[in-house]
Write a structure and sequence with these properties.
Elements: H1 3-29, H2 37-46, H3 56-64
Helix pairs in contact: 2-3
Amino acid sequence: MNREEITDLYFMDARSKLIDLAAFLDRLDRYEGADDYRMAAFRKTAAELMSQQPGRAARVLTAFSDPTEEPIVAAGEKGASGAWSGDKD
């Protein structure tokens, strides 16, 4: 495939995701409070979308991921939060 074919195939899906992200941020802006670690990671990685350097997806994924290598004793949450909080355990 060429660049135009990829754009034809994936543009509407990417457009929809960007509109969803904009709506999510608008929703957050309507309420008081500070960003937590998830939104700090989100805002940090959002700049990667405009990067011209290859590997954007890997850099975004890495920014949300736990970089530690030692296993934790027990998970502190019942489910994944989507971003590493910076806590060791």
